[in-house]
Each structure stands twice: as structure tokens, then as C-alpha cells.
Design goal:
Helix content is 64%, strand content 0%. It has helices at residues 7-19, 25-43, 53-65. Helix 2 (25-43) packs across helix 3. The chain is flat and about 30 Å long. The termini are far apart. 3% of the residues are buried.
């Protein structure tokens, strides 16, 4: 994986290496869809090492404002 990691790249790695082996396929696909639909578009290009709580708070506020549950 490239360094420094982008959040989207890390999440893809996490889904494949940590989540997939430990959950049912449908659960994995549901989590992957949430990442693709909401997390990656909002913060996926940001460097993982520069992620701050404010970035996550902005993501959650945006989801709530658009009618999605966080």
C-alpha cells in the first residue's frame, strides 16, 4: 500500500483484510457499500495520518443533515 495512506485506501484494506474474514459476506458487502457511498466521497482522499476528529464530526453532521443516520 502507498504511504502515506489515504483514508479510502486504508478502508479498502481494512474491509478486505480485517472485516471480510470475520463477518458474513452480506455484512461485509453492507459495510463496503456504506464506505463507498458515504465515507469515501467525504473523506476518502484525505491522508490517514492527517485525519482529525473535526473531519469525522463534519462527515457525521453532513449525514444527519441529509437525513441519514450516523
Amino acid at each position: 500500500l502507498p504511504k502515506p495512506w489515504r483514508i479510502g485506501t486504508f478502508l479498502d484494506y481494512w474491509l478486505a483484510e480485517s472485516v471480510a474474514p470475520s463477518v458474513r459476506p452480506r455484512t461485509h458487502e453492507s459495510l463496503a457499500q456504506l464506505v463507498r457511498s458515504y465515507v469515501a466521497p467525504a473523506i476518502g482522499q484525505r491522508q490517514l495520518c492527517k485525519l482529525e476528529a473535526a473531519h469525522v464530526q463534519t462527515l457525521v453532521k453532513g449525514l444527519l443533515a441529509s437525513g441519514n443516520s450516523a
